[in-house]
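**User:**
Make up any protein.

**Assistant:**
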Amino acid sequence: MNALASPVQGAFARYPSLHGRAVLITGGATGIGECLVRHFAAQGARVGFIDLAVEAGQALAAELQGAEFAPVFVAADLTDIPAMRLAIATLREAIGPIRALFNNAANDKRQPLSEITPEFWTQSIAVNLNHSFFAAQAVVPDMQAAGGGSIVNFGSVSWMLKQAGLPSYSAAKAAMHGLSRSLARDLGPHRIRVNTLVPGWVMTEKQLRLWVDEAARAEIARGQCINEPLLADHIAHMALFLAADDSAMCTAQTFVVDGGWV
């Protein structure tokens, strides 16, 4: 299969406004983030992505060197805000002023309630929430100078479904909605739209390896209206729309892609 091809079959939209547009994706080396990198590269966007997974990030960037604009990878720990700011500055030099930001990076690590320490909680909030605000803060001047832009914060159905074992993750993902709506109000006068993209249970390699057993598949079958595997490509198709000019008047909204579960 072509490196830029999608396993989801169908005739999908191309967005002329994405051609040459600088798009920043956090957590872009694996999972949903990797899929976003592939799809935006296929649209002819100038993609920069940040991740702590150095080998995976380098391998993805190398694989996509044949794209019209080869994606640029910078390794950084997003919980280290100065390091993240430096990574964004480096990517800006490589791909140009950022016009779309996808705050995708997260970690849904499970921990029994009785074993959650203050250190675990603080780290979980840092991984799943804090960097999203500071990444947005870093790219807002680019978008203001360009006359507009798109910021997309990633939520989760976990807290909507009252799923157990994820209190810090669920708290952070619920907070993403408040962050998006607050930023949308602050940034609307600059034609910067801010939305929350909420994936359902996406069948990434990590999820299949760690969490998706027969009981999980049965839960998905009961919950989703469309009982088919939810793939990262389904999330990417919505992400493309939210970055393109086609969504110019969509802001402060929540876009759920979950097969009809919540």
In short: The longest strand covers residues 192-199. The two ends are 34 Å apart (CA to CA).
